[in-house]
Design goal:
It comes from Fibrella aquatilis. The structure is a single chain. With about 325 residues, this protein is α+β, with helices and mostly antiparallel strands. Helices cover about 30% and strands about 25% of the residues. It contains nine helices and 15 strands. It has an eight-stranded mixed beta sheet, sandwiched between helices. α3 packs antiparallel against α4. The chain binds 1,6-di-O-phosphono-beta-D-fructofuranose (FBP) and magnesium ion (2 copies). 1,6-di-O-phosphono-beta-D-fructofuranose binds next to β5. One magnesium ion binds next to β5.
Length: about 325
């Protein structure tokens, strides 16, 4: 029985827990040994703790700046950026399935001490930091690779610079009106809503597909004058067609809305950010993997995001992501002008 048939037989009913979903999927892969499943559980566990802290942030004095200066991006770290970073690092260290990770909040590779582990993770512990203190949806984004360096040795840069097409899994958690974990392991995309009372992620959005087109465009209008001319032309066209402008300012939240309803998110290069703002390894690659697995598209104006050759841990990239017809239309306007 091939994997596709095995998976088709596994069309799990809404209401299935994430754990059961992961276990069922694992049995579809005769070579699976449970490490990736356990890693995904460790991610889910950390996100439950962070979800609780986000909900109570105003009561726990974990709002506002961390006062620890800037992170490697030159951005002021928020307290919740630091808290979320610590939670994920701790959960992945204790879980034992990750030998090393990189994070938006740390300059260098974080070695967990689990040198016999087979996986490395790239993570944006808290996405949408500018929205933390104002109670607007924020998220976590993660990307998982099988290491290429020998098990037992220390992971190296090479483990993280394998390229977007080498991801074995990617996902995000959206801490919004409800908390949802959206995940792909390369066989489609599914969403799990967190049930606080059960403390469980429950399958609520099996086999998510992004509509080919939508009525929504998402970008920071304030930067429009600095965008490449073809992008400005595309946005003018969106407005002439009376499409709806929606911009939350949290990539995870803007992406998720467009995934469900159809739409396009744009963060082009600007004069101030000639490489773009978003980070390739822990924002663009994982979201592009999810988008493509859901039938959408993601590019930087010249090529697929997943085809971009990575050169450094915190490199940035322009990001155009969303409904395939809308990305094709944008690309049709020759973005290199
Ligand atoms: O404030 P801007 O320039 O519109 O940027 C907003 C974008 O930057 C981000 O906040 C960057 O992510 P972080 O919050 O993880 O640094 C995205 O979530 C969001 O889409
Ligand atoms: Mg981010
Ligand atoms: Mg972040």
């Amino acid at each position: 029985m091939n994997v596709q048939t095995a998976l088709a037989n596994l069309a799990l009913p809404v209401g299935t827990t994430l754990d059961r979903y992961i276990m069922q999927r694992q049995t579809a892969f005769p070579y699976a040994t449970g490490e990736l499943s356990q890693l995904l559980r460790d991610m889910a566990l950390a996100s439950k703790i962070i979800n609780r802290e986000i909900n109570r942030a105003g009561l726990m004095d974990i709002t506002g700046s961390a006062g620890s200066g800037n992170n490697v991006q030159g951005e002021t770290q928020q307290k919740l950026d630091v808290v979320a970073n610590i939670r994920f690092i701790r959960a992945l260290k204790n879980g034992g399935e990750v030998c090393a990770l990189i994070s938006e909040e740390d300059e260098d590779i974080i070695h967990t001490g689990n040198d016999n582990a087979k996986y490395v993770v790239a993570i944006d512990p808290l996405d949408g930091s500018s929205n933390i203190d104002v109670n607007v949806s924020i998220g976590t984004i993660f990307s998982i690779y099988r290491r290429i360096t020998p098990v037992g040795s220390k992971a190296t840069l090479a483990d993280f610079l394998q390229g977007g097409d080498q991801q074995v899994a990617a996902g995000y958690i959206l801490y919004g009106s409800s908390t949802i974990l959206v995940l792909t392991t390369g066989e489609g995309v599914s969403g799990f809503t967190y049930d606080n009372s059960l403390g469980e992620y429950i399958l609520s959005h099996p086999n998510l597909r992004q509509p080919r087109a939508g009525q929504i465009f998402s970008c920071n209008d304030g930067n429009e004058a600095d965008y490449p001319i073809p992008v400005q032309a595309y946005l003018r066209q969106c407005k002439q067609q009376r499409l709806t402008g929606r911009y939350i300012g949290s990539l995870v939240a803007d992406f998720h809305r467009n995934l469900i309803k159809g739409g396009i998110y744009l963060y082009p290069q600007t004069a101030r950010l000639p490489e773009g703002k978003l980070r390739l390894l822990y924002e663009c690659y994982p979201m592009a993997f999810i988008a493509e697995q859901a039938g959408g598209r993601a590019c930087n104006g010249e090529q697929r995001i997943l085809a971009i050759a990575p050169t450094s841990l915190h490199q940035r990239s322009p990001l155009f992501i969303g409904s395939s017809d809308m990305i094709n239309q944008l690309n049709g306007m020759s973005l290199n002008g």
